[in-house]
Amino acid sequence: MIVRAKNLTKVYGKKEKFEALKGVNLEINEGEILAILGPSGCGKTTLLNCLSGLDEPTSGEVEVLGKRLDRMNEEEKTIFRSENMGFIFQFFNLIPVLTAVENVEIPLLISKNGTPSEIRKKALEWLERLHILHRKNAYPSEMSGGEQQRVAIARALINNPKIVWADEPTGALDTKNSQEIIDLIINMNKELGTTFVIVTHDINVAKKAHRIIKMDSGQIVSEEILVRG
C-alpha cells in the first residue's frame, strides 16, 4: 500500500457550507493504475488534491509512503512532493516562456538534483523516451495539445516519482491523442512500476486502469477491479 486515506472530509465555506468530501476511506496499492471516475462536481479533484497534499483536508488522515501528510506543514509537504510525486494536469500547466526541454527540467532544477548539464541530458532522454525529442526547442504555444501533454508527462516522471497524480490528463485532447496519452501512462506503469492515480469523467479512460472507484456527492459509491491483458 502506497496511499491510505481514513475518514477524509473537506468542507468549503463558513456560512454556506459545502461538503466536497464526506468521510472517504481509500487505499491505493503500489504499482497500480487507479482511476477515480465520476461526474463533474462529485469530489474527484478535491480527493486527489487532499491525497497529494495540494489541499488540506478538513478532517481525517492521509498517509503516503508511510508518512502522514496531514501532520506536515506546507514546507514539509512541498519537499515531500518534490521528492516522491509527479503531477499531470488537464491543461498541461507548462510555462509558456520556456521551451519543451526547459519545462521538463524544472523538477530537477527545483530539487537541485544534478548539474545543469546532467539535468539537460536527463530531460532530453525523457523527451526521447516519450517520442517528443524533435520538439525540444518548441514553446508550448507552438505545440499541439498532445505534444504538450507528452512534455508534461516527461516533466512528471523526470524525478522518478513513486506516484503520479493525473487530473483529467486527456480532458483537453481529441480521441486519438487521448488514446496515445493513456497508452503512454500504461507503458510507463509497466516499465517503471510507477503508481498512477487518474481522475477522469471518461469511462473509456477509466477502463484502462487496474481498478476504478466511482464517486458521487463526495463519497465513494462503488469499486471495480479490472483485468487487463
TrEMBL record:
Q: Which UniProt keywords apply?
A: ATP-binding, Lipoprotein, Nucleotide-binding, Transport
Family stated for the protein in its record: Belongs to the ABC transporter superfamily.
GO molecular function list: ATP binding; ATP hydrolysis activity; transmembrane transporter activity
List, for all copies, the residue spans of the domain called ABC transporter. 3-229
The record's annotation in SUPFAM superfamilies points to: P-loop containing nucleoside triphosphate hydrolases
The protein in question is named Lipoprotein-releasing system ATP-binding protein LolD
Q: Which organism is it from?
A: Thermosipho africanus (strain TCF52B)
Would I find Transport among this entry's keywords?
Answer: yes
According to the UniProt record, one GO cellular component term is: membrane protein complex
